[in-house]
């Protein structure tokens, strides 16, 4: 009796599991399948028809266009922002986690409280600033906001990570005459590497996909990042669904590659932001 | 002797403070320039009528705020945000938990599902917005295609003001459910295996184990997931802006899309600032109230 009941519930669970797989994958099938079609093929042949010929024309058009420009803009913004972010967040987390001074707690609370601030409240002033500084419509306008908005979560995670480093290590170094700055560069920073790796993935994915600032602070397609590539191509080929699907597929590929080669790290990194508010 | 020790301690304290200052300086500068100053400036700009470009900037006092308080579009947007918030929590977290439970109970052979179900999270919100604006299109969309198989007509989910918001919520659920699945899976790994073994030896079925043992142990994680989802839903922007632009009418308008359109499409930067500031206040209040309620209950439990 008990066994048949449990078998029945497992059966239902499997059906629901398969149903969810269909829900999760159908839009991807739609995207990839249609990206190989000709302009009107999906209207005449149906959405889920197998492409008549797996023609790569759409991909060729996209790749010979501005696509790589967008891609490299994204890479440059990502590398510079992430390097600055990780270094200065580690710097800030060191005193907040390991020094005893009166302001440590209030400063920490203030930084953590900034985690729930909607970026939209900063959008207009940042837009103005970028115009005043003459960096509007260049990828340099993105670096400041990208770093600043990622600081709260980064400091939060790194501080809790650095708290776990055993005190004995620090004490031993202190006896050997190691000052606070040497301590950071020689001991704390290297020991914080696993935490930094997780943060690099978490923030990297967010910056790679960032839309609001990129859309507001840049204008010409030569200076835009990858999420806006879709926007540009969509404007150009809005009636040509297969072409848009090809762009979309291309923008997902870097993430899929990362997922294949570093699945566990990626999953861990992407959920790093899941912390109690 | 004693005096010298004291000054040594004072010196050490001073050194600590100085080092702390140096280490904190870079983030302090960046946060002041890109977060704190902009917040203040947004409130300040909300007192002006300004198109964002010309030097013509007139102080109009609280007129923008009065307008905001009477602006039905803004309050519709806020209400939509709340609907998105409640339904996101009620849809994403239970499904995420169910998927995680399925994988956790099923053991190693479930890895394939874990991989498949994670995939939506690999796409950016912008890409998802575009993908679904095509995939849900009246002509040549997935639902229309399915409906045709069963002899039905085209289905227009995003163009109909009655269904648009729920469709958007569905797409958001599609995007974020995997996140809560992974989150719950991580919570499951914190449940010690001997708890499971003890429950099974005592004759509990898996269903009983889930409801009586696992779920209470997972409750704190589920609570923080709910807070996370709540804050996220109130700030939501990219996907909706790309997919519907807030339309049709104001049926899918959110506070952030409304703010963006006022400021950067209509170039009412003064009023846009008031919307942004209003949004900031409402989000802070909602988060504070929710945290208070949740933390209050925790104290009651203990």
Automatic annotation (TrEMBL), chain A:
Membrane-crossing ranges are 12-33, 70-95, 107-127, 139-162, 183-202, 243-262
Subcellular compartments: Cell membrane
Looking up Pfam families in the UniProt record yields:
BPD_transp_1
By sequence similarity, the record places it as follows: Belongs to the binding-protein-dependent transport system permease family.
**Know the name of this protein?**
Carbohydrate ABC transporter permease
Judging by the UniProt lineage, the source's domain of life is: Bacteria
Q: Does the keyword Transmembrane apply?
A: yes
Q: How does it sit in the membrane?
A: Multi-pass membrane protein
* InterPro entries for this protein: MetI-like (IPR000515), MetI-like_sf (IPR035906)
Q: Tell me the keywords, alphabetical order.
A: Cell membrane, Membrane, Transmembrane, Transmembrane helix, Transport
Gene3D superfamilies assigned to the protein according to its UniProt record, in alphabetical order: MetI-like (1.10.3720.10)
Q: What is its main location?
A: membrane
What positions does the domain ABC transmembrane type-1 occupy?
A: 71-262
CDD domains, per the entry: TM_PBP2
Automatic annotation (TrEMBL), chain B:
Keywords on this record? Cell membrane, Membrane, Transmembrane, Transmembrane helix, Transport
| Domain ABC transmembrane type-1 residue range list | 78-292
Q: Which Pfam families does its entry note?
A: BPD_transp_1 (PF00528)
Tell me the organism: Ohessyouella blattaphilus
Q: How does it sit in the membrane?
A: Multi-pass membrane protein
Write out the similarity annotation.
Belongs to the binding-protein-dependent transport system permease family.
Q: Could you confirm whether the keyword Zinc appears in this record?
A: no
Q: Does the keyword Transferase apply?
A: no
Q: Which residues form the signal peptide?
A: none
Q: Kindly give the InterPro entries that the UniProt entry links to this protein.
A: ABC_transporter_permease, MetI-like, MetI-like_sf
List where the protein spans the membrane. 21-40, 82-103, 115-137, 164-188, 209-231, 269-289
Domain of life, per UniProt, equals Bacteria
Its annotated compartments are: Cell membrane
Question: Any idea what this protein is called?
Answer: Sugar ABC transporter permease
